[in-house]
Amino acid sequence: MAIKVQTQTKITDARTFQDLSTWSGTYGNFQPNVTAVNTDIDIRNAMNSKTLSANVTFTVSNLAAGRTSLLLMDISANGYTPTFPSSVKWVEDTEPTWTNARYWMVGLTAWDGSTVRATATAWGS
Amino acid sequence: MAVKVNNVEVISDARALNNVFNTDNCSYRDWHPAPTTITTVINFATPMMVLDMTGNVTFTTSNKATGASAVLILDTTASNHVPTFPSEVKFPSTPSWASNRYWTISFVCWDNSTVRATAIGFDDPATAPLVDPSFDLTGWDTNVSDSNANFGPIASCSIFFSHEPSNNRIKVTAQHTTGSFGTIVDVTTYVNYSASLTSTTFTARYNAGNQSCFAGAGGTQSCNSGNLSFGPLPSDDGFVDGTYYSINQTPGSTGFRWQAQRNTNDGQGTAFVTAAFNTSDPDFQIKVTSDQGTFYSSGTVPSAADFAINLNSTYGIAGFTPQATPHFTELET
Fold first, then answer.
1. CATH number, position A97
2. Model ipTM over 0.90
3. CB spacing of A18 vs B66 below 8 angstroms
4. What is the domain count for chain A?
5. CB distance from B122 to chain A under 8 Å?
6. Does domain B32-122 have CATH number 3.40.1000?
7. Is B46 in contact with A29 (Cβ distance < 8 A)?
8. A18 and B23: CB-CB below 8 Å?
9. Which chain A residue is nearest to residue B45, measuring alpha carbons?
10. For residue A20, is it within any domain?
11. pLDDT tens digits, residue range B247-303?
12. For residue A53, what are the CA distances in angstroms to B16, B30, B167, B227?
């Protein structure tokens, strides 16, 4: 049976905690679910993954100040090219050269409702 | 009372959230991972880990799951201990661990077998000496007496050096023994050396200066090393005063030992073993040779008495008064 507070469901039957504001405390084994991305990176999802099988043009949705998200990206051995929207700004205003490495972890932080600032870390293996 | 959903606990009596499957439209403020002090395991069930290294560490990983992340706050300490990560942990390029003391290392499980990590170093390593210059023997009881009316009592003191290469250090153990109370380890300390040293050799010596065994009145056997398990002087065990000897690796060791035991064949009386440690050299020295030079670490017998090591063994009837410690004036320089 779901748990409700003042008629609002806070814990669903599927054990999803929802519509909770201002959590506080400490956590131990508490990890993000991984969302497989097609082309849209929903910044509400904390952890996303994408293995490119062709060149991809991403979008980023649900921007709100302070929201952060990670994208684990494998451009594959073929070196496919990702393209990010203009709302995504890169360190030093320089987008990474994606073909320099195969594996990338892209950190996205919504600065406000329209701008995302991002970092990218590369691994060759 | 715990809160359950469909008979699965989601909030325990201790207010821990358990079995959370998902969150939706939640926000947090003061919501931090609880730090866990680790030893060797990067456990993705404990996302914030802390380790102050006390030696070189070879890590393993556990509980890997796609998307799981963890952070390790690592202090390699002033000794510049070296971390080694398993092959499944990939860095963009392996950090030069010796270039910084403090590290924040972030791990992400790419899948259930591969971990990709980044490391950010802070602060230059402390300008620690490549070899600790001294070791502290405070607390070592070197003024030891024992007596027994029925058989030859034992009074001894010893110092052992053991090389622990996996931790880049020499373990120093100082102890004393009596027949009445057995062995008491007075001091255990370590001489650390930098992992950056290569082509190393490790030796130790003692610089007793004047040391002697006096069998006591009427004694002829009490200083006969053939009657003793060791000693009475280190030189009787093949360790010449002032000469460096190789330090054996753990679990072995290299020891310098003094022992007094009044032999019952000598009749009632007191045997003495003394060592003055009155030279200009340090009482004990560890010598490390390496590709980066030769280094020394020194220790001092804590006793301020004329005979820094003073062992008395009295064999006799109860109430027998031990003789006073003789003065080996002929040995004074």
1. 2.60.120
2. no
3. no
4. 1
5. no
6. no
7. yes
8. yes
9. A29
10. no
11. 999 999 999 999 999 998 888 899 999 999 998 889 999 999 988 788 899 999 998
12. 42, 40, 48, 84
